[in-house]
Amino acid sequence: MTAAPDIRGGRLASAEYAVNFADLHPAQTPHEARLAAERCLFCYDAPCQTACPTSIDIPLFIRQIATGNRLGSAKTILSANPLGAMCARVCPTETLCEEACVRNADADEPVEIGRLQRFATDLVIDEMRPIFRRASTTGRRIAVVGAGPAGLACAHGLALAGHEVTIFDAREKVGGLNEYGIASYKATGGIAQREVEWLLSVGGITVETGKALGRDVTLEGLRADHDAVFLGLGLQGVNHLGFHDAGIAGVVDAIDFIARLREAQADGRLDTVEVGRRVVVIGGGMTAIDAAVQAKKLGAEEVTIVYRRGAEAMGASRYEQELALTNGVVIRHFARPVALAEADGHLASVQFTGTAVDEGRVYDTNERFELAADMLLKAIGQTFIAEVLGHDLALAHGRIVIDDERRTSLPDVFAGGDCVAAGSDLTVVAVEDGKQAARAIDRQLRGVAAVAAE
Description:
Oligomer: single chain
Shape: globular
Number of helices: 17
Strand content: 15-25%
Number of domains: 3
Structural class: alpha/beta
CATH architecture of the largest domain: 3-Layer(bba) Sandwich
Largest sheet: 5 strands, parallel
Helix content: 25-40%
CATH superfamily of the largest domain: FAD/NAD(P)-binding domain
């Protein structure tokens, strides 16, 4: 089975791009927000707050919206989560706070916590309102490596405490996966960069872009020049399919595909993003869904996600899986790719074997099938490249080991986000890591015991 290669941009009219990449969840009006807020039961020991990785006081911020105190609501949110505007858009609330909402009982609908959080925080971001004030300067200097959610949250917390922070990032734009790895229809209007601008406006934070650890700066050098270092490196590498795919035109990393979309969105040129006519996506996480849905929105005729386990094992939430299905994406379970067919150096088809799961282990059933494809998007996970550290930090499963204080095996080096052994691929978890690391670094620099600080 082969397909004539057909990868190009401009498959749709300009108006179609505007519709397809419009905001997934439009902002609420003040009236809509108040009505949604009034559905909250303001539970004591609220399960929604317990389910939030950053422990936002959800009943309080919703009560503040219900009583017309939108700015106070934003301050409640941003005090716990300084990237609350993007988290309101990208958090899987359907499996976190909203799943825990007591309104779910008796087939009721949960309170729209995510949309209410966006309603509150957008006021501050849109108007660049300063709601925090830095403490008096301490003269202490901290290096933060990585300008993603973990690094930004750490830098913000340290700056508020009066320390001077320098962020180093390999890319030219600040934001990490919030800027480069989130579907365009979830982050419209340049919200990721506007949130960064607001966060940095607190002062005390210098950003040096185009500076990669191991290439332009070293951990040893940063330690020598700073009182502490925080590593929020994320994951730099991409997992391999397990067979030859190098040099075949049409085989693309899904993260790179999404990043190109975000750049094109910022420039107002989505018609320049090339997409295949028949696209196959390998993977089962949020990146696979984001890549597949956007390929369809760019005008691909056929988009198929193939995952080696069942729907319940997919990293993407059930809501995200349904989003893909409603956008015309086909999801095939219990199969994995085993080979690629090419024609004149270009991808022509992907060959698969069926799989089954026994006691948690995936094995092949040897039931073969083939899908014609001119584009293959790899969304099979990323890896941490430990070599960039240039130092013997303790690692587990290829990632940095940290303690409860987010401290590494070096006493002045802390870490958080996807690069740590206990890391998660959730933005909100990375934010919490950065927030807690900032508190731990501040305590250490001030000589305050952790117990006394709680």
